[in-house]
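Task: sequence design from structure.
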């Protein structure tokens, strides 16, 4: 995971849905000293993979993409709020 996501933990796991089909599941959690509160959980269903480990890797990659989207969204919101406050304070 890239440096801007160091405060997040992404876990991927897979659950069999049928012959060669896997549900790729992921969790995005906040990395803290004591616990890791859940921020987001997602799933990709009906994907074909040769093995469970390939499905887990795909799940983790999907989770990292989702985490990056969420961080970018929060960053944009913070910049917009800062710009709004700067305009209204001046």
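Answer:
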């Amino acid at each position: 995971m890239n440096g801007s996501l160091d405060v997040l933990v992404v876990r991927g796991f897979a659950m069999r849905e049928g012959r060669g089909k896997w549900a790729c599941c992921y969790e995005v959690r906040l990395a803290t000293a004591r616990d890791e509160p859940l921020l987001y959980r997602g799933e990709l269903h009906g994907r074909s993979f040769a093995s469970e480990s390939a499905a887990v890797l795909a799940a983790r990659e999907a989770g990292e993409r989702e985490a990056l989207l969420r961080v970018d969204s929060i960053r944009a919101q913070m910049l917009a709020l800062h710009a709004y406050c700067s305009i209204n304070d001046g």
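The CA atoms of residues 4 and 71 lie 8 Å apart.
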